[in-house]
């Protein structure tokens, strides 16, 4: 046994730390398209689509956006709420509605009285869809961001991708901590055990253990 191996074996355990994937994304991002990472992503997303085929209802396509395969409506709600609170969108929508109410019904006032009929016209709907798609894209996760890889309620699959990403970017040995309720990645550096989760920013190890082992939710909602 070498001195280095002996030193590694006798490092004193110092405790647990939460590894913030979000705060350290700049370290991980350059390795997103490493061959091993992409292979694991394709493997896990294909498996996810098969396991949750009744919900996802589409097959995984290599190179697609992972967040679009989230087996809940979490991202749909987020984007929808963001768009509906965007003042620029609301202003453009009001202008579009007024223009088409005048065009179709010859009216400039009392726009609300005509909205029900307005949204039945295919020509108007095509214009509306173009506007909505522009703002949906504004609030949708962008390529190579952490949000792009946040497939909510799919921790058992997407955190396995994180495991390979951590191995590649940080050159560490990793383990998976998986329970009935959740999966995270763990790795050791200088006597500390770090816990990493691409879907959540855990405030403490106590919060993580409570959720992992007993499905106890902290005062913030895990994904």
Structure description:
The protein is α+β, with helices and mostly antiparallel strands and 223 residues long. 49% of the residues lie in helices and 10% in strands. The chain has ten helices and four strands. The protein has a four-stranded mixed sheet with strand order 1-4-3-2, covered by helices on one side. Strand 3 and strand 4 form a beta hairpin. Helix 6 packs antiparallel against helix 8 (122-139). The longest helix is centred in the middle third of the chain and has 19 residues, at 87-105. Mean pLDDT is 94; it is low at 1-8.
Overall mean pLDDT stands at 94
Low-confidence stretches: 1-8
Shape summary? elongated
Beta strands, count: 4
Biggest β-sheet strands, sense, barrel: 4 strands, mixed
What key attributes describe this structure?
223 residues; alpha+beta; 10 helices; 4 strands
Outline:
This protein is 49% helix and 10% strand.
Task: Show the helix and strand layout.
Elements lengths: L2 H7 L5 E5 L5 H4 L6 H17 L1 H4 L17 H11 L2 H19 L9 H4 L3 H18 L15 H16 L3 E5 L4 E7 L2 E5 L8 H10 L9
Parallel strand pairs: 1-4
Antiparallel strand pairs: 2-3, 3-4
Helix pairs in contact: 3-9, 5-8, 6-8
């Amino acid at each position: 046994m070498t001195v280095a191996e002996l030193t590694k074996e006798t490092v004193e355990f110092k405790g647990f730390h939460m590894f913030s994937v979000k705060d350290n994304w700049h370290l991980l991002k350059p390795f997103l398209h490493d061959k091993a990472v992409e292979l694991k992503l394709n493997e896990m997303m294909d498996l996810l689509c098969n396991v949750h085929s009744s919900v996802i209802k589409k097959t995984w396509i290599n190179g697609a956006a992972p967040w679009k395969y989230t087996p809940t409506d979490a991202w749909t709600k987020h984007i929808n709420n963001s768009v509906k609170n965007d003042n620029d969108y609301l202003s453009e929508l009001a202008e579009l509605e007024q223009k088409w109410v005048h065009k179709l019904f010859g009216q400039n006032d009392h726009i609300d009285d005509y909205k029900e009929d307005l949204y039945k016209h295919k020509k108007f709907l095509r214009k509306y869809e173009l506007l909505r798609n522009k703002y949906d894209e504004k609030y949708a996760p962008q390529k190579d961001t952490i949000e792009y890889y946040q497939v909510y309620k799919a921790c058992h699959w997407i955190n396995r991708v994180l495991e390979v990403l951590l191995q590649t970017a940080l050159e560490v040995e990793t383990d998976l901590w998986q329970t009935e309720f959740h999966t995270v990645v763990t790795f050791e550096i200088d006597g500390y055990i770090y816990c990493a989760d691409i879907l959540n920013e855990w405030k403490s190890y106590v919060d993580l253990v409570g959720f992992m082992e007993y499905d106890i939710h902290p005062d913030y909602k895990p994904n």
